[in-house]
Please model this.
Amino acid sequence: MAKPASKTPAPNVEAAGPDTADMAPRELSKHEFGRKLMALMLDKGWNQSELARRAKIGRDAVSTYIRGVSFPEPVSLNKLAKALGLTAEQLLPNTTIRGIASDPTPAFEIKQAAGGDPSRVWLRVNRIVTFEQAAKIVQLLKEHA
Model:
């Protein structure tokens, strides 16, 4: 039986170039997140109660995340990340990936600029690029401003 297609498409990170594909964080499953959270907790020598205390969330919630039952809500994710000395994005990159994947803005968009000058347009670039590529784009725009 064929596996149904995912409703949320993965972001197209390869379109910006082959060297940017590994710049995007990999989406974690609930169980992978739970294993990651447990490993970080154990690296600090903490048990679930200690992590819950330091993050100021319930121990049952920590248990739920570690068992891979659910992902934390943004408030709890931020509290866990802070307690572990990480950013929420470092702890759970899925939020950024889903934000990119669900963004209705196309990767490139060109619109006629207001004012009627046909030689001027608005340009929007919405994709992952290397810092070097971004710097070249900025430089190009400065040269032709």
Summary: Helices lie at 30-43, 48-55, 59-66, 74-84, 88-91, 94-102, 131-143. The first strand starts at residue 108 and ends at 112. The two ends are 56 Å apart (CA to CA). The chain is about 45% helix and 5% strand.
